[in-house]
Amino acid sequence: PAVADEDSLVVLLIPDILAGTFHAGIFTNGVDTGDREGQETVQLYITDVKAPVERPAKELKGFRKVSVAPGETKEVTFTITPDDLAYFDADTHSWTSHPGKYQAHVASSSADIAATVPFTLK
User: Fold this and answer.
1) N or C of the chain: less Cβ packing under 10 Å?
2) Under a CB-based contact definition with an 8 Å cutoff, are residues 20 and 50 in contact?
3) pLDDT tens track for 16-30
4) What's the sign of the alpha-carbon dihedral 83, 86, 87, 91?
5) What is the dihedral of CA 24, 79, 48, 110, to 10 degrees?
């Protein structure tokens, strides 16, 4: 079965600043376009656009495996917090996240990015 092809994946990023904490939700719709039930693993990767230290181009921050019946749509939700954006700062010997521009990538694999949404941590 063909599940969550590029034409059926919808991504919406909703940033919410509450008490100095950044929360963002990624909502995706996986649609089974085949004639049998299928399984899809929806993955969330984050890119730090201007990292102050060397970081991977894409860091896996979450995934959800969903079963989708023919013609069915499933919503998958990810929440991003500052801890998800943190890196280990060797100078301060602590985990830290920094304000700046990031990208959230929704994919079925790191090589198959279906959608990219920019966001800013303030």
Assistant:
1) C
2) no
3) 433 334 334 444 555
4) negative
5) -130
